[in-house]
Amino acid sequence: MPAITRTHLGDGVYAEFDGFQICLYTLNGEARTNEVYLDAYVWKSMLEFMKRQDAPAFTSERKE
């Protein structure tokens, strides 16, 4: 199993992967809050949702 590594995504949101699912959460300075778990099925559904959106933020042409 890969090591669980916290990654800051921006706007106070963090992600961790435990080898099975992705956990998205916020931190209040002391503890994790607002946890959402994404398994492979939910992650795939989210990617499909993003593909259907007509927004530049969700395309590969986005410039940082």
Features:
64 residues, 20% helix, four-stranded antiparallel β-sheet
What profile does the largest beta sheet have?
A: 4 strands, antiparallel
Topology, number of strands: 4
Q: Overall pLDDT, averaged?
A: 84
How does the helix and strand content classify structurally? alpha+beta
Q: Determine the fraction of residues in helical runs and give it as a percent range.
A: 10-25%
The share of residues in extended strands comes to 25-35%
Distance between the termini: 33 Å
Based on CA atoms alone, the radius of gyration comes out at: 14 Å
Question: Largest sheet, order of strands side by side?
Answer: 1-2-3-4
Q: How many helices does DSSP assign?
A: 1
Task: Give unreliable regions as ranges.
Answer: none
Q: What would the principal axes of the Cα set say about the shape?
A: globular
Structure summary:
The protein has 1 helix and 4 strands. It is an alpha+beta fold.
Topology:
Blueprint: E1 7-10, E2 13-17, E3 22-27, E4 32-38, H1 40-52
Antiparallel strand pairs: 1-2, 2-3, 3-4
Protein architecture, described:
It contains one helix and four strands; from the N terminus they run ββββα. Helices cover 20% and strands 34% of the residues. It has one helix spanning 40-52, and strands at 7-10, 13-17, 22-27, 32-38. A four-stranded antiparallel β-sheet has the order 1-2-3-4. The protein is of the alpha+beta class.
